[in-house]
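job 3f2a | input accepted
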Amino acid sequence: MRRAAFLILLALFTGAAQAQDITERTVRFPAGQSGTTIKGTIRGYEIIDYVLGASAGQRMKINFRTSNASNYFNLLPARGETAIFNGSVNGNSHDGVLPANGNYRIRIYLMRNAARRNETANYSLSVSIRGAASQAPPSSNPDYADGLSGGPDYWEVYGTPDTLNIRSGPSTKYRVLIAFPVGTVVQNLGCRMSGGQRWCKITQPGGTGVTGWAAGRYLREAAAPSYAKPPAANSGAGSVSAEDTGACLAAVAATTNNSVTVLSSEFSEANTMIMIGVGPDRAPWRCLVSRGRVAEVMSMTNEGSL
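job 3f2a | predicted structure (306 res):
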């Protein structure tokens, strides 16, 4: 029975970890036309970005129709990851003046409840761009948080409907080490361009033991974590594996249906204890795990301090 429960949790975690394999498609209007209609299908954790160039001062209109009530679109700006329009909040149509020159992205996705059930949505996306570009002065140098050299000390996972894959190298060709939920604060170890995209090497200050690469467009500048850095795993006893960490994150996320992040970890030969923070307030939960098998998940809210 315990093994069956573990396999279910592992499947949930694996599905979430695939969330960020985003497909990009360039939008081109027919000759002489200022708009087009695109029809498509999306399933589960799949995400599709429709990319189209526009100029500051032009007006973009978007109308979205779908067969699934959990299927939405977001409009992402030419620079940055803060959505100009969020369909899950504002509805299925948008009409607004664009603030800057560049490539905008219309992101199609299923909400987590539908993605986890591997649901399908058939959609129709109508988009048009009209009006002349404004004569705004050239923009200044991009903010350092979007650059390659220097940058902030910490990033926050942002702009995804669920989790962000952390990979062993700077490309989607590399294997997934772990997936961090939206809101996870990670330490910046430097960024580089690879395959036309910005990739950043990161590690989590909470002690997962995982250092890997994340797509830079899903990271934004963040303050240092407000919680104290946890102690390292017991010296001489070994180290906490990525497998154990991932199993605990998946188990607590499935139990609480909320975002999770690692607060601390302590290795032992019997059961490794990993403290998990749940939700924006990082409510403490304890997870006991051994070789990827979760033995116990427990809320520590009423169990005293950490």
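job 3f2a | Residues 2-17 form the longest helix (16 residues).
job 3f2a | closed
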